[in-house]
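Entry 12.
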Amino acid sequence: MAELALMSRSKFVDLFKRTVGQSPGNYEIDWRFVVAQGLLQQDKAVTLVGYENGYENGSALARVFRKKLGISPKQWLEQTL
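Predicted 3D structure (tokens):
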């Protein structure tokens, strides 16, 4: 992203943090998480959602869910429906 913005990496990260409130890496993780939640609500399998969002497998996505929410994707889905 820094290259596209014609900035050094450190300058880009600094400006991104001041503008968005978090690092580009954390923003990407949060964005992928929100996309995954939407796909899960469309009744797609955890493994498929994981792959579609760039996770190595469904277990990797489940680890992100547990880290962020303390529950599995299936538990989250049951709570949201």
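Annotation: Helices lie at 9-20, 24-41, 46-52, 58-69, 73-80. The chain has five helices and no strands.
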